[in-house]
């Protein structure tokens, strides 16, 4: 597994991490034993970075990771990033206060079974929160109090990602970045890298579209956000299929799949693309232990050839750009 680092985190982490939203729900049914199997499979395959949030299953994802850490004699080798803020209604800026941050982080510390959280990220709040200087002063207080080691943000908009880079002690920015969501590569990735800010790339497989396994008839469980959030009625539509209309994405993903190098899965190519483009760590989810192992194996794959990279860019420009590029 390739190892990555960013100056402001000060820790080495695996270039391929594990996104743990699915351990809490919103991706169909799950169970605790399967969650533990996925976490241990990822760890045994070299994954050291795990990303979760306090609202994933109302703490269920965090608690699963806490149980995992308790069972691992090598628990100090793992870096757990969590998020806070989505306990408030979406697009409501009021409530992002120091008192709220204390309550939320105390709950996450209990769920994870740790005294100090490795990294806490504001969880896609309204843009106004990022533009309020008090926001970052309050996060600094959490560090001084020992609740957190570092703070970062998770954003929807590239504009917000660029804005927060002005905070000298910001450790990380989490952003949607994949073959179908390329805008961060225009300016943000370079500027973040130059400043030593970690880039955590989420939704790298566009909610599974970039596995190349779906067709127009593919369906999902009623409690899976790929069923109930295609119109953005539950949360930002960019989190579901990266905001690409499903039928458009299926067709484009089939073109992507045709470019997969021999011996790779299409999902592995999609993850390697995100890593190759300059992310610090990429956080695909996994529904099974085998998926976790396959994802981790991307950390050993060679560089995608230039010709393939150019062909992937053409698919984006021809079929996807018009649906997503100006929106986020």
TrEMBL record:
Pfam families hit by this protein: Aldo_ket_red
GO-annotated molecular function: oxidoreductase activity
Keyword Repeat included in the entry's annotation: no
UniProt-listed Enzyme Commission number(s): 1.1.1.-
NADP-dependent oxidoreductase domain sequence ranges: 15-316
First-tier enzyme category under EC: oxidoreductase
Keyword GTP-binding belongs to the record: no
Protein's name according to its UniProt entry: Aldo/keto reductase
Organism annotation: Demequina capsici
Organism lineage: Bacteria, Bacillati, Actinomycetota, Actinomycetes, Micrococcales
């Amino acid at each position: 597994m390739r190892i990555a680092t960013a100056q402001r985190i000060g820790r080495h982490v695996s270039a391929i991490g594990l996104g743990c939203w699915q351990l809490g729900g919103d991706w169909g049914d799950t169970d605790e034993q399967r969650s533990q199997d996925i976490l241990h499979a990822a760890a045994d395959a070299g994954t050291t970075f795990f990303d979760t949030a306090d609202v994933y299953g109302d703490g269920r994802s965090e608690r699963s990771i806490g149980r995992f850490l308790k069972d691992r004699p090598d628990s100090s080798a793992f870096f757990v990033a969590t998020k806070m803020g989505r306990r408030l209604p979406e697009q409501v800026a009021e409530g992002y206060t120091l008192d709220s941050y204390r309550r939320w982080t105390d709950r996450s510390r209990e769920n994870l079974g740790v005294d100090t959280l490795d990294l806490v990220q504001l969880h896609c709040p309204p843009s106004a929160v990022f533009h309020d200087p008090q926001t970052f002063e309050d996060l600094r207080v959490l560090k001084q109090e020992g609740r957190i080691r570092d703070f970062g943000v998770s954003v929807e908009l590239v504009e917000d990602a660029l804005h927060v880079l002005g905070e000298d002690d910001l450790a990380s920015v989490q952003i949607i970045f994949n073959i179908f969501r390329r805008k961060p590569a225009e300016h943000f990735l370079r500027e973040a890298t130059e400043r030593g800010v970690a880039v955590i790339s989420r939704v790298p497989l566009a909610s599974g579209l970039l596995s190349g396994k779906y067709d127009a008839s593919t369906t999902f469980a009623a409690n899976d956000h790929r069923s109930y959030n295609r119109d953005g009625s539950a949360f930002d539509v960019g989190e579901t299929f990266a905001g690409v209309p499903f039928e458009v994405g299926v067709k484009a993903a089939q073109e992507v799949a045709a470019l997969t190098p021999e011996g790779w899965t299409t999902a592995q190519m999609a993850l390697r693309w995100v890593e190759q483009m300059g992310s610090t760590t990429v956080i695909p989810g996994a529904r099974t232990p085998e998926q976790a192992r396959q994802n981790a194996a991307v950390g050993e794959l060679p560089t995608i050839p230039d010709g393939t990279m150019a062909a992937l860019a053409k698919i984006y420009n021809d079929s996807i750009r018009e649906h997503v590029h100006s929106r986020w």
